[in-house]
Every structure is written in C-alpha cells, then in structure tokens.
C-alpha cells in the first residue's frame, strides 16, 4: 500500500469509526472506496443491525449501485439469519440483475436446501436477462457452496445441464495431489476449478498473491546468526566431522 492510499485508508477508517446512526452507515455503504475497510464498515453496521438491515433490504429492491450491492451482500452474510429469510421474501422485488447475482451468494453461505429452487430459477432468469455478462455465475456458485446439503446425484445432473465442458492441461503429479486433497473435502476437480474461476470474477483478478513463499522471521534470524557464527574468527572451526561430534558429546 503506497503512502497516499494509506493516508486515505486511515481517513476513511476514522470516518467509519465516527458513524453513529443507521442512516449514515447505509449511506456510507455507497461511498466506501478502499476494500481494506470493508471489515470495519461491516462491524459498525452489525453493531446497529436491527436499524440498518431494514434500510438495506429496502434499498436493495431498487439499487443499481455496485459498491452498495456488494457491501450489502457481505453484510447479509454476517448478519442475523432472520434477515436472510427476509431477503428471500423480498427477492422477487429486486430489480437489478447484478444485485440478484450477488445476493444469491448469501443463500449459498446459509447452506439450506430450501433456497436451492430459488438459486436454480435465478440461474436461468439471470442468464436470459444478461447474456452479455457472467452474472449467472452468482447462483451457480451458490449451488456449489451448498453442495453439502444437495443430493449429489441431483446436483451433478443439474450442473451437467447448465455448464460447458472445458479441457485444461494439468501436470500429472499436480493433478494427483490436488485430487487426493479435494476428495478429503468432498469436492472434485471440476468443483475446485469453478470455485477458483468464480473467485477470479468476484475479485477482478487472481484470488491470491503470486509470489515466492516468504521465510518466517525466526528462520531469517536463525540464518543470519548462523552466518555470523560461521564467519567469526573467535569461534572454533572444524575440518573433521568426528571431531565436531566429539566436542558436541563432551
């Protein structure tokens, strides 16, 4: 995070901490600029959830503001379950296609089979409404998230009917290790690929950092200490392994 962004982040976080009523919190859900502050905003909203949630649900019926929609979906996923039930009741009144796509993820998080028909219906409706976008992936990913509650045969039949066969090349040893790990989680390779791609879409990029692993601080310190000792002329050196072990055992 560069200096300018860090300063803006601190200013925004302070503004969030100073919010003290439901209306201001809901308004700020449209204004937030740095996603790093999402957790702070959600914690503030949850502290006032009995006043905030009715306002959020009302605005969702007609809002087309992407930032508000995404914050609202995140908030609903962490709020009291009764608000998810209220979301289900008002769902037919939500006009914006992107909003319905995002909010389907809330139902996936709940892992309840009673939401499955709605998710299947929304997949078809959203795909028809916006064939130019991939918004139908919202309800589809929610169905994957809910896999522990959906009968595997039914789920597999549905997924086969609505997905496109795709071929990818994977190194044999990588595939073998991945499949073994995924089976332990109750998933297959296709599940994992779809989840990965959905996260790419949601995060507008890779859902993880691409970099070499970083050494733990204690490992770095130990390496530096080892180098210092090895170069210290006052520390006894060894040219014979037997002599080294003899001293260690003495």
Q: Measured on Cα atoms, how large is the radius of gyration?
A: 26 Å
Unreliable residue runs? 147-161
Give the % helix: 55-70%
Note the gap between the termini.
53 Å
Plain-language structure description:
- The chain is 68% helix and 0% strand.
- The chain has 250 residues and is mainly alpha-helical.
- The termini are far apart.
- The longest helix is centred in the first third of the chain and has 15 residues.
- α2 crosses α5 and α8 packs antiparallel against α9.
In short:
By secondary structure, the chain is mainly alpha-helical. It contains 14 helices and no strands.
What is this structure's SSE topology?
Elements: H1 3-17, H2 22-31, H3 38-47, H4 49-60, H5 66-78, H6 81-90, H7 97-110, H8 116-129, H9 137-145, H10 152-162, H11 172-184, H12 189-203, H13 217-231, H14 241-249
Q: Notable features of this structure?
A:
single chain, mainly alpha, 14 helices, 68% helix, 250 residues
């Amino acid at each position: 995070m560069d200096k300018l962004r860090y300063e803006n982040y601190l200013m925004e976080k302070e503004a969030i901490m100073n919010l003290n009523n439901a209306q201001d919190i809901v308004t700020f859900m449209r204004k937030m600029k740095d996603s790093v502050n999402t957790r702070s905003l959600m914690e503030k909203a949850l502290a006032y959830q009995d006043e905030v949630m009715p306002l959020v649900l009302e605005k969702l019926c007609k809002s087309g503001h992407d930032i508000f929609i995404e914050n609202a979906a995140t908030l609903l996923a962490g709020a009291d379950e009764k608000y998810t039930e209220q979301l289900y009741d008002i769902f037919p009144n939500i006009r914006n296609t992107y909003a319905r796509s995002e909010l389907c993820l809330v139902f996936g998080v709940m892992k309840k089979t009673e939401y499955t028909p709605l998710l299947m219906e929304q997949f078809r409706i959203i795909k028809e409404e916006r064939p130019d976008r991939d918004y139908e992936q919202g309800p589809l990913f929610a169905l994957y998230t809910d896999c522990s509650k959906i009968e595997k045969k039914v789920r597999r039949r549905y997924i086969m009917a609505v997905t496109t066969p795709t071929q990818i090349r994977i190194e044999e040893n990588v595939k073998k290790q991945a499949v073994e790990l995924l089976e332990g989680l109750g998933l297959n390779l296709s599940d994992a690929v779809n989840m990965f791609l959905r996260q790419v879409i949601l995060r507008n990029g890779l859902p993880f950092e691409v970099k070499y692993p970083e050494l733990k601080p204690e490992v770095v310190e130990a390496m530096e200490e080892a180098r210092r000792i090895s170069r210290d002329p006052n520390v006894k050196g060894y040219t014979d392994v037997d002599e080294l072990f003899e001293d260690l055992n003495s």
